[in-house]
Amino acid sequence: MLHNSKSVVDRRPIDPPPIIQLVVHDPLDPFSQSYTTSPAFIMQAVLMDECGKITLHHIKGHRAMAMAGSMVSPLHTLRDTSMVQGAYFVFSDLSVRMEGAFRLHTMIL
Fold first, then answer.
1. What is the pLDDT along the chain (109 residues), one digit of tens a residue?
2. Which of 29, 62, 89, 90 counts the most CB atoms within 10 A of its CB?
3. Rounded to whole angstroms, what are the CA distances from 6 to 12, 28, 88?
């Protein structure tokens, strides 16, 4: 639990941690596969309401953030369970600080 001067705020880890694979396939672009090794790609995770319409930045009635942990991930070159190399964004330490049902929206910056 996280403590502050006014209240106690829970941390509920997102488990399993979100891992998003970047797949680029453009038959007209001969360089499309090179994008999956670019260090320039960064992905951001944002907590949304259950319908995916409202972004939840803070806990209602508090100054505390609704989500904790690293909300951005660089592109990692990893191997999947079949030992095939791929490009992945890994969010290993995200947690939500309030009860409810939510969606996690991700976007490449």
1. 444 445 555 778 999 999 999 998 888 888 887 888 888 899 999 999 999 999 998 887 778 888 999 999 999 999 999 999 999 999 999 999 988 899 999 999 9
2. 89
3. 20, 57, 39
Q: Helix, strand, or coil here: 58?
A: strand
Helix (DSSP H) and strand (DSSP E) numbers for the chain: 0, 10
Taken in order of first residue, the domains within the chain and their CATH numbers are 2-108 (2.60.40.3960)
- Identity of residue 20: I
Only one residue has tokens 């660089």, namely: 74
Among the listed residues 88, 89, 68, the one whose alpha carbon sits nearest the alpha carbon of residue 14: 68
Other C-beta atoms within 10 Å of 20: how many? Answer: 16
